Amino acid sequence: MIYLDYQATTPLAPEAFEAMVPWLRDHFANPHSPHAAGRRARAAVEVARAQVAALLPAGGRVVFTSGATEALNWAIKGTAGRIVTLASEHAAVLDTVEAERQVGREAMVLPVGCDGRVDCFSAVSPGAGLVAAMLVNNEIGTIQPIADLAAQARSAGAVMLCDAVQGFGRVAIPDGCGVIAISAHKIHGPKGVGALWMRDGIDLTPLLHGGGQEAGGRSGTLSPALCVGFGVAARLAQERQAEDAAHVERLFDGALNRFTAAGWMLNGSTEHRYKGNLNVRRDGLDVARLMSDLRDIAFSAGSACASGSGRSSHVLRAIGLTEAQARASVRIGFGRYTKEEDLIAATDRMIAAAAAQSVAA
User: Fold this and answer.
1) Are 133 and 178 in contact (CB under 8 A)?
2) Model pLDDT for residues 174-196, shown as the tens digit of each residue
3) I need a surface site. Which of 80, 198, 299, 301 has the fewest CB within 10 A?
4) Which alpha helices (DSSP H) does 262-310 contain, by range?
């Protein structure tokens, strides 16, 4: 199997796995217990918290959550006032915003351009309570002007929520954000743990009620193993950031050159883009047939969260693609553990299989 679906999830780093094992097998104490075993587990959690925080702006605190979906829900539901967000956001944001609208909260969804970038900031006006935008789009890799949006949010007296799930550990997170949502399994950490970073002075209404174990009022028993795996993954991302970036850029350039030479088109921004994401289309392509023909290659027709819904990508429609164009697009994600020869082989096979469809038609 050639795995090319890094936006859905990334392979667990061996170092993260090894670091987690003792906390799964031997050191099973509750990190919120006051005895020695509990304090030992708590110390491991705090080391992990510092490792995650090292990739985030100074002047805030990291609160562990069950994942980015919880973090995003908390950030949105824990604030008040008008919400301003983008049409290309993840469903965890758009669906939560819609839920807030259903209970009477005002919300505005801004359009994006053909490259996926927002260019209309006028809606971020006094009275806005929250501005929510994704740093790196999960479907097309476009990088939003988060620093500009954050400045507009501050001027309006609003909190800036940055969904940094796809960008954390890969691209710089600008200063000026009020809250930042991240996830471990997008940076070679384990599934089931994420975090919400909150700038000092920002307090959110709790989403989960109970013991209030985490700062900010987040309730629930933490898993030391998951936190440790997240911390090690964050440390590796920091240590390998330049190396990983150079690797994905080389892979991106090689694969894109092959696709464009064969008549495929790139979706999303060319200039403002995380290059571990390659979203391309070929008019008339039957993506379901392509996947069936290439079952030993793992790639995507869009967000894993919308898989099986029967809907075309709302992100691709937001950038102006027709329904047919959106359905003729594929997303290829790669990173640290992707071998260049595997990506090139997969690319060539995809191009050949698509060409065979045209001949058969």
Assistant:
1) no
2) 999 999 999 999 999 999 999 99
3) 80
4) 287-293
What Cα–Cα distance (Å) separates residue 11 from each residue in 41, 318, 355? 25, 30, 31
138 within some domain: no
Assigned domain for 336 exists? yes
Q: pLDDT tens across 252-301, in order?
A: 999 999 999 999 999 999 999 999 999 999 999 999 999 999 999 999 98
Q: What distances in angstroms separate CA 253 from CA 141, 262, 263, 266, one per listed residue?
A: 14, 14, 15, 12
Average pLDDT rounded to a whole number, residues 304-310: 52
The Cα–Cα gap between 239 and 112 comes to 34
**Catalytic annotation present for 305:** yes
Question: On the CB side of 184, how many CA atoms lie within 13 Å of its CA?
Answer: 31
User: Is 0.70 topped by the overall pTM?
Assistant: yes
**What does the alpha-carbon distance between residue 337 and residue 23 come to, in Å, rounded to a whole number?**
25
Find, among 196, 51, 53, the residue nearest to 132 by Cα. Answer: 196
CA pair distance 35, 92, nearest whole angstrom: 38
Among all chains, which residue has been given the structure tokens 């950490």?
189
Label the pairing between strands 179-183 and 194-199.
Answer: antiparallel
Q: How confident is the model at residue 302 (pLDDT cuts 50, 70, 90)?
A: low
Residues 75-86 as b/e (b if ≥16 CB within 10 A, e otherwise) read bbbbbeebbbbb
251 domain residue, yes or no: yes
The structure tokens listed for 305 are 């969260």
The CATH number covering residue 285 comes to: 3.90.1150.10
H-only helix segments in the chain: 14-25, 36-53, 68-77, 91-102, 146-156, 224-239, 241-261, 287-293, 314-318, 323-327, 340-360
Q: Which of 276, 258, 248 has its CA nearest to residue 344?
A: 258
Other CB atoms within a 10 A radius of the CB of residue 311 amount to 12
Question: Of 146, 136, 85, 120, nearest to 269 (Cα)?
Answer: 136
- Which member of 162, 177, 227, 305 is catalytic? 305
Pair 301, 326: CB distance under 8 Å: no
Q: How many domains does the chain have?
A: 1
The total number of residues shown for the chain amounts to 361
